[in-house]
Amino acid sequence: MNGSYVGIDLAAQPRRTGVAVLRETGEGALLEHVGVGADDDALLDHLEGAAKIGVDVPLGWPKPFVDLLTAHAAGTMTAPASTGGDWRRGLALRATDLDVHRRTGLTPLSVATDRIAHPALRWAGIEARLRAEGLDTRRDGAGQICEVYPAAALRIWGLAHRGYKGAEKGAPRAALVDALDAQLPALDWNGHREQCAAEDDALDAVLAALIAREVDHGRAVPPPAEQRGLARQEGWIWLPREGTFPLRTDAAG
């Protein structure tokens, strides 16, 4: 472990993909790199040697959805009792999506039915490359990769978690960066603060790196024992523990 953490805000296209590298220092942590516009090769270069990598994208698909597609393709699908909303929701959301909603009230985008599937497909290809190169890509977060959700983390940390994304949201995004700066005196922005205020992809990559550090330091919630097998297929969103805050070791977080 070299004390570096990588955060990736993965988009379907490289031009909107943010990546941040956070490195431990004696007094806190330094943002060694923040950039937007990373292709697959650039991402792999940044991931080399990282202690933990936080990826803001679904790492897998709901098992019931995968099972349905397999049966549908084979022509062996059993007719459901109803094709109503409850049945469709059971196919659209992963176990971790439901857990995030229970904990925070937020519902992650459905990788089965929403446009988030496009970056998820890109990640599936990247995961295959990483696995071929020997990285531990277990989707439950037990290896080098962990799935993160910046908006939910911000909510748990008591910070603004909505209304900061988009070119027209510069003012609320700058306010969020100011709030983070005030709460994170041990974080050295290293000249990247203005970029995070200007680009939400950069800011989310930094948040992903901070969450990855929380996971590595044992301050995030793992999948419960009864869901670990499912999480290895579907992925698991690692949320910070209540009462914790990045780069703090005191009882308040």
Number of helices: 10
Specify the overall morphology: globular
Extract low-pLDDT stretches.
none
Q: How many strand elements?
A: 8
**Estimated radius of gyration:** 18 Å
Strands side by side in the biggest sheet = 5-4-1-2-3-6
- Overall pLDDT metric: 95
Strand content: 5-15%
Category from helices, strands and their pairing: alpha/beta
Q: What is the CA-CA span between the terminal residues?
A: 23 Å
Would you kindly provide a written description of the structure presented here, covering whatever features stand out?
- The protein is an alpha/beta fold and 253 residues long.
- It contains 10 helices and 8 strands.
- The strands form 2 sheets. A 6-stranded mixed β-sheet has the order 5-4-1-2-3-6. Strands 7-8 form a two-stranded antiparallel ribbon.
- The longest helix has 17 residues, at 200-216.
